[in-house]
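Hi again,

Forgot to attach this to my earlier email, sorry! This is the prediction with zinc ion bound. I've pasted everything inline since the attachment limit keeps bouncing my files.
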Amino acid sequence: MTGCLFCRIAGGEIPSTVVQQDDRFYAFRDIDPKAPVHVLAIPREHIASLNDVRGVDQVGGLLLFARDVARSLGLSERGYRVVLNTNADGGQTVFHLHVHVLGGRAMQWPPG
Ligand code: 5GP
Ligand code: ZN
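Structure tokens for the complex follow:
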């Protein structure tokens, strides 16, 4: 979508540090990491938030892609956290569907 930050990142218009990509999904380093490993995984298709997901394949494919990213970064055995913020109370600031893949340290619970 024109003007969407993450569409522009996935399209290569705005630079990012790519971690993994395929024809449907794109993973890149978060610009303001909250853990030793902090990667964002997004669909190339513009979907504003989880509220706008229409089918299981959109979000299921994204989750499996995030799982593969975590595996390729060596996080699988020790563990990692996948976070999907939705709208204002969820803490969403960029309105293109994304999951955070956080790892490299023990996570706290509950989140703030
Ligand atoms: P949200 O708060 O919407 O769940 O997550 C948005 C994330 O995007 C934040 O963690 C923020 O640091 C990251 N972010 C915002 N702008 C950019 C950018 O231009 N490049 C990269 N790599 N990450 C960004
Ligand atoms: Zn977008």
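The CA atoms of residues 14 and 29 lie 13 Å apart. The two ends are 31 Å apart (CA to CA).

That should be everything now.

G.
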